[in-house]
Every structure is written in structure tokens, then in C-alpha cells.
Design a protein that fits this description.
Elements: H1 2-22, H2 29-48, E1 54-55, E2 58-59, H3 60-84
Antiparallel strand pairs: 1-2
């Protein structure tokens, strides 16, 4: 049970850090940050491996980088849809 809670907290923190690095406002608040953290951790691990400190099965450094990439891409897609409408 504690592992799930710790994973959710880490996903939220990683999502907030990745969002702050890119400078976009992630839609969805805490839930959006959690989803971005989970997807970003997956992307970061796939692209960069699992180096650095590991907390709650998250390789922190690749997860933050992957989340920043994910939030940046979401921001670009959002801008494209706003211009198209």
C-alpha cells in the first residue's frame, strides 16, 4: 500500500518539476501533474535508461527529463490547436 502512495507522490513531484522546467501550465492540476509524471518517467526511462537515484521505482533524473519533454510537446500541440481554431 505504501509503495503505491509513494509512487503517486513521486509522480506528482516529478510532474511538477518537469512542468516548472518547461514553463508551461500543465492542465489538470495535481492529477495532470501525476499523469505527466508517470508518462514522463516512462519516456525518460525509454530514452535515457535508469541512471541516477531511484525512488519508488522511478529513476529520478531521466523521469524529470522525460516529463519536461512530454510537457513541452503537449504545449506545442496545444498551441497548434489554438491557432487552428
Amino acid at each position: 500500500m505504501w509503495a503505491i502512495i509513494l509512487s503517486i507522490v513521486m509522480a506528482i513531484l516529478i510532474g511538477l518539476i518537469g512542468d516548472a522546467l518547461v514553463g508551461h501550465n500543465m492542465p489538470g492540476g495535481i492529477l495532470g501533474s501525476m499523469i505527466a509524471g508517470l508518462v514522463g518517467a516512462w519516456i525518460g526511462t525509454m530514452l535515457f535508461g535508469d541512471f541516477g537515484p531511484v525512488i519508488a521505482d522511478f529513476a529520478v533524473v531521466p523521469a524529470i527529463i522525460g516529463t519536461a519533454i512530454f510537457v513541452f510537446l503537449l504545449g506545442l500541440i496545444g498551441k497548434l490547436f489554438r491557432k487552428a481554431a
